[in-house]
Write a structure and sequence with these properties.
This protein is of the alpha/beta class. The protein has 23 helices and 23 strands. The strands form 5 sheets. It has an 8-stranded mixed sheet, sandwiched between helices. Helix 4 packs across helix 5, helix 18 crosses helix 22 and helix 20 packs antiparallel against helix 21.
Length: about 725
């Protein structure tokens, strides 16, 4: 096209009516410090959004700049430009140094005894300082290309100062030098200057820099082929030129091959390849730095490279977490669906219906506010039961409340405070029936719960059954978050573990055991703080099947404050670690114990201990990406993870026939609630590794939980009202190692 030149990054510069008109293509400013894979931003305009804000604006740059050479001097109020003399070529390479391509470029230059100018970014210099030292040692010049490669036309003067100072700091640390030449990212020819780029150029001059653009663009960033690159880089009529090329930002093998042909061809035609100051017969642009500035630079390089190493470790950890999380979600969705289809078939059955009476054990310690609701819910049971309330040394009149109710088939057994396992064993010794149901003193059952819970015992291989524990006080934000956790995590997990035959925990709120199976494994143990996990693992190792009964619903009162939630989850996490350690020998044993050890223990360890501990890396990278970039990709990736969790949660709610409205708080749960669980697990790890001891903790109860349908009367007897005022969290059960 006559009278039109095509500049770098797609700039089209032409003469119209004697005035210069420019259409400059610039990507938006980028936030970032170190690109994740050590590569500067690729200059391919097809990968960059276009900026056309400058189109049609009057250009206030002086005529000698628009019509002048590619070296622009605005220092000390000057407005001048310089061109390279004839038969002199200044090769310039942008965006490096790159560990793959820069050494190849340097090798070709050394082979043909040519010098060049490398405009380096601070990020790449900090990561590959040895390459900058090699450039200087081999006689090349190094210029600034900013630290992060943003478009300075959209930046404040404060940001520009930061980009320059950090770029200089990286040069000082890498090669002990400062540079006085600068090339703005996404720059083009001098006559492409517009009302956005010219003020930046003038400001750069006030900082003592020469701005270097170009007047010959090889367009190697397009990867058009070796011959085209050579043709684009060749000036006409023996003129001198500053040639734009790249040693980073993508695959540069065409650049290297073109360079190896271009250098000898042009040298044969009488051209010299010099650095910028050599071509202009000027003093070197590089000056040495010493003293504090040198040591600051070296410290900076050390810190950036250390952070890079740490980031590499974090990336590896994130890959592990991603594989675990995605694997777990895939297993949960696949196996929980299979479980639901199996147990919901019309012809499904565990065996002969279980109709014989069962014993229900209710260990109670300072449960005055809850115990009446709990016992009355059992009285509405559709299955014949006896109820044994074991008062474990309560100081608030819990036993008296139950006795005053005067209900048939309800007995109270008192003992000195000895802990929940001892209370359950005491109840087991007093039970009259072969099937024993265990529940907490703050839990209420639906009328059908016991019947649904004991039906799996129609299969003689079943030794224990896990029920479906639900959060009763879900109206608060913390309660809603725990409701999501119970439905999505606990119950989907139990379906999955049921299919895999390695369920790790019968919930203390709703579980049933075959009495003979309990006696064979020695009853409830106080070796750990998670007696429910401990006994479940013991049942697996003894060869019993442990299954999940989805219709056996129990409504429990979840912690209502952060402190109470912390105390509960800390005990659960630490107790689970204790149980895994206690049953570690199952890994090398044979038979049912070995099967559980080589299937169940690894899954529990990965999904309940290791993955949650590493999962904060997802949030760390979210913060890192939002602050340092690439912001959009980071946010999209995080939202993708959230979407996967939302799909799993929605599926779990559908299986449990729960209202989807509770999922509104899921994003906030991921941001806040999940962080609390991370810290709790970390504290549990520290306690386990240091051999610390943790005490049983009693949570404050309110007694507001009822089974759906109002089956539990809210009114209390006069005895209950006068004796239920001292249920606090200050009393601890006896310590357990």
């Amino acid at each position: 096209m006559p009278g039109v030149r095509r500049g770098r990054a797609g700039s089209v510069v032409g003469g119209v009516g004697g005035q210069s008109r420019s259409v400059a293509v610039h990507p938006p400013a980028l936030l970032g410090v170190v690109q994740p894979h050590g590569l500067a931003v690729d200059d391919d305009p097809e990968a960059q959004p276009a900026r056309t804000a400058a189109e049609g604006l009057p250009v206030h740059a002086a005529g000698e700049i628009l019509d002048g050479g590619p070296v622009i001097d605005t220092r000390s109020g000057r407005t001048t430009s310089l061109s390279v003399p004839d038969h002199r070529l200044v090769l310039t390479f942008d965006d490096g140094p790159d560990p793959t391509w820069t050494p190849k470029v340097l090798d070709v230059l050394k082979k043909h005894h040519a010098h060049a100018v490398f405009f380096v970014t601070g990020t790449m210099t900090s990561r590959h300082p040895g390459l900058v030292r090699r450039m200087v040692a081999e006689g090349h010049e190094v210029g600034l290309h900013t630290f992060n490669h943003p478009d300075l036309s959209y930046q404040s003067t404060k940001r520009i100062d930061w980009e320059l100072s950090q770029n200089q700091l990286a040069l000082a640390g890498a090669a002990g030098i400062r540079s006085s030449i600068f090339r703005p990212p996404y720059s083009s020819f001098a006559d492409a200057m517009d009302d956005r780029s010219w003020p930046v150029t003038r400001y750069i001059g006030t900082k003592g820099y020469l701005t270097v653009v170009n007047d010959t663009d090889s367009e190697d960033w397009r990867r058009p082929g070796v011959s085209t690159i050579i043709r684009n880089a060749t000036p006409r009529g023996g003129k001198g030129a500053i040639v734009l090329m790249h040693d980073s930002g993508g695959d540069r093998h065409q650049t290297v091959r073109a360079l190896d042909r271009f250098l000898p061809e042009m040298q044969a035609r009488g051209y010299r390849f010099d650095s910028l100051t050599e071509a202009l017969d000027a003093p070197s642009a590089l000056t040495p730095v010493t003293g504090a500035e040198l040591w600051k630079g070296r410290a900076w390089i050390f810190l950036v490279r250390a952070s890079d190493d740490i980031t590499g470790v974090m990336v590896a950890g994130l890959a592990v977490v991603g594989a675990l999380v995605i694997g777990r979600f895939a297993l949960m969705l696949l196996l929980s669906g299979a479980h639901a289809r199996r147990v919901r078939r019309r012809d499904f059955g565990w065996g002969p219906p279980v109709t014989q009476p069962v014993s229900v054990l209710v260990p109670a310690y300072n449960e005055a506010k809850c115990i009446e609701n709990t016992v009355r819910s059992l009285m509405a049971s559709e299955h014949p039961i006896e109820v044994i309330v074991v008062d474990d040394g309560s100081g608030d009149g819990t036993a008296r409340i139950v006795e005053a109710m005067g209900l048939p088939n309800v007995r109270v057994v008192r003992q000195l405070n000895a802990g929940k396992p001892a209370a359950l064993n005491r109840g087991l010794a007093n039970a009259r029936h072969d099937i024993v149901v265990m529940m907490d003193g703050d839990t209420v059952f639906e009328p059908s719960t016991v019947r649904e819970l004991v039906q799996p015992f129609g299969d003689p291989r079943v030794g224990a059954v896990a029920g479906n524990a639900k959060v009763g006080n879900r109206d608060s934000l913390i309660g809603a978050w725990q409701h999501i956790e119970y439905v999505m995590g606990f119950n989907l997990d139990r379906r999955m573990y049921d299919i895999l035959r390695c369920m790790p925990t019968i919930p203390g709120a709703v579980g049933a055991f075959r009495r003979s199976a309990l006696e064979r494994v020695g009853g409830m143990s106080d070796d750990t703080l998670a007696e429910d996990t401990d006994i479940t693992m013991a049942m697996h190792r003894d060869g019993w099947r442990v299954v999940y009964a989805e219709k056996a619903r129990a409504w429990t009162e979840a912690p209502e404050t952060v402190q109470q939630l912390w105390s509960q989850r800390y005990r659960w996490s630490y107790g689970t670690m204790q149980a895994i350690w206690k049953h570690r020998r199952a890994l090398v044993e044979r038979g049912p114990s070995g099967r559980f050890g080589r299937v169940g223990l690894p899954l529990v360890s990965l999904f309940m201990v290791v993955a949650p501990l590493l999962a904060p890396l997802i949030d760390v990278f979210l913060l890192y990406g939002v602050v340092f970039g690439p912001t959009e990709k980071t946010i999209v990736a995080w939202l993708g993870v959230l979407a996967i969790q939302a799909i799993c949660a929605a599926y779990a709610f559908r299986l449990d026939k729960e209202r989807m409205t509770h999922l509104i708080s899921l994003p906030l749960q991921q941001i806040l609630y999940r962080q609390l669980m991370y810290v709790v697990l970390l504290q549990s790890w520290i306690t386990a590794l240091t051999g610390g001891r943790l005490r049983w903790q009693k949570l404050r109860r309110t007694g507001v939980v009822e089974a759906p349908g109002g089956t539990v009367p809210r009114q209390r007897s006069r005895t209950s009202r006068t004796s239920s005022t001292s249920s606090t969290s200050s009393s601890d059960r006896r310590p357990v190692a």
